[in-house]
Q: What sequence folds into this?
């Protein structure tokens, strides 16, 4: 059984087709980069896979559970996923409380929450900031809180939507190192939406090029970037396609 499968997926808004994907298979415990132009449907695909948006047709099958126009994930399945959004959303509370939120929703005890939050904070170099108000953090710090908030749940799948957008090179490097460590040490499957082709090459095992809501090419990252089969892919990675 496939870990994550997208089949005959269609989505439109106000009569405009946003997604039309015949088939997509995501390998377990790997990092898969989803690349493409602005408006290609990358974020919408992530939202549908996460169960936040229903498709008009077709389905996503995650861990054997279907999400479609007529059915969706049960609560146990939904809780095995986490989403890191492009713009980190911080609650007006401490960094500790922000990281702990998902655990509190799940009903863990205070001692269990404290132990897990401290572990996630150490992983993401946030231990010294746990008492700080999260809304006062820098962009890089807030991005690390978002990662810690996902990591603390120890999900099977983390979806990341441009997790290093608008960060300086130092913070980009820190976030990329964390993503690689999370995947390598915990075996968490990561779906990474990124405009940064160099980032995709550095981090991902597999890559998917999405244009106008359709998959143009998919395969190993090395193969897609070094020996693309489609003319659109060649134009995209060479910079001939403006986006």
A:
């Amino acid at each position: 059984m496939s870990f994550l499968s997208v089949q005959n997926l269609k989505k439109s808004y106000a009569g405009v087709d946003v997604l039309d994907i015949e088939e997509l298979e995501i390998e377990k415990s790997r990092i898969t980069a989803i690349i493409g132009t602005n408006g290609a449907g990358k974020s919408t695909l992530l939202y549908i896979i996460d169960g936040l948006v229903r498709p008009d047709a077709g389905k996503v099958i995650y861990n054997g559970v279907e999400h479609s126009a007529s059915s969706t994930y049960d609560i146990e399945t939904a809780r095995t996923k986490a989403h890191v959004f492009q713009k980190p959303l911080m609650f007006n509370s401490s960094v500790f409380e922000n990281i702990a939120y998902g655990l509190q929703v799940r009903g863990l005890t205070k001692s269990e929450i404290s132990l897990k939050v401290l572990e996630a904070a150490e992983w993401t170099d946030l231990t010294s900031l746990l008492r700080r108000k999260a809304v006062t953090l820098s962009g890089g710090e807030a991005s690390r809180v978002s990662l810690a908030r996902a990591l603390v749940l120890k999900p099977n799948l983390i979806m990341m939507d441009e997790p290093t957008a608008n960060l300086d090179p130092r913070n980009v490097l820190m976030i990329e190192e964390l993503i690689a460590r999370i995947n390598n040490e915990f075996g968490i499957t990561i779906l990474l939406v990124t405009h940064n082709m160099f980032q995709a090459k550095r981090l991902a095992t597999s890559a998917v090029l999405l244009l106008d809501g359709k998959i143009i090419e998919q395969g190993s990252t090395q193969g897609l970037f070094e020996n693309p089969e489609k003319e659109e892919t060649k134009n995209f990675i060479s910079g001939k396609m403006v986006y």
